[in-house]
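hi! just following up on the protien thing from before. the input was this:
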Amino acid sequence: MKNQHQSVEAPSLESCASNPPSNDPAKTTSDKEPIQSTQGLVKPLATFFMAFATVMTVLIVYMDNTAMKHYQFRMNLSQDFDFLSVSQDNPQLVTYIKEVFLGPAIEPHHKPIEYNAEEPSEEISFVLKLLNNKVNGFFVEAGAYNDGKTSKTEWLEKRLLWKGLLIQPDPRHFFSLRRHNRLRSQAAHACLSPMPYPKEVTLHHDHDGVRINVISTNVVEEPEWFNTRVKCFPLYSLLLAVNRTSVDFFSLESPGTELQILETIPFDEVDIKIISVHLEMDQMKMNVIKQFLKMKNYSLMKRFNDSYVYQIL
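and the predicted 3d structure came back as:
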């Protein structure tokens, strides 16, 4: 029994040689799994990179198209649109202005800004002197509340019962204009056209205030993200829309286009007694305007800071 037990626990070398270990299928499969696993990742990775490259290509094309459209949009904003075939006294234009652009100079949804001035400005006092302290007159003020706060004609309206037309192209200042509750006036969110026909232009905001669009080579590179498109109408068209051809006091503040606006006025069709031109330090332009108005029988009466008061002779 003892010999038999030992032969079981210690087989002879001959038996080991005659019975070599067989190949284990499970062990062979286990050795090949890493190779097969690596080969299985190649196809998904290739698919991922192809999809990534496609998405990036589409994104680049989209960004290029978007940049081009933005550039074209900016270029469109840099150009004025002229309605050359529309005359100043076109009945359809007058009706369009009356129905779309004219309205009461009030803001019913906000508390009105109170007016507490007891005395007129020095300029308005002088204008009243020229007009013999006229009551119930009529004014046109282009650029009313350009600073968002003041108007030359508010005292005339609220103390001497004048009526008038207030013109303001800037939407921010137009809102301020209406909050002053000018019950006896009409307001137009528009600008005065520097040509004898309607225009659509872009307003630009700079350190000098608001100016209408000027074609220039660097307009596309301007840092402004928001510009206002606004309609411009000749003064004569606006006067016809409010059924007026006689004006006691015309206050003009339109940086850069003062002379052009004055040149559009058919002085043989309208009667403007006093013209006040706001003109910042530009001696050459002042002289040109003075000569032009002289040809229309106006004389420079006095200067108040940057405002030049002319009276018809």
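The chain is about 40% helix and 25% strand.
The radius of gyration is 41 Å.
cheers
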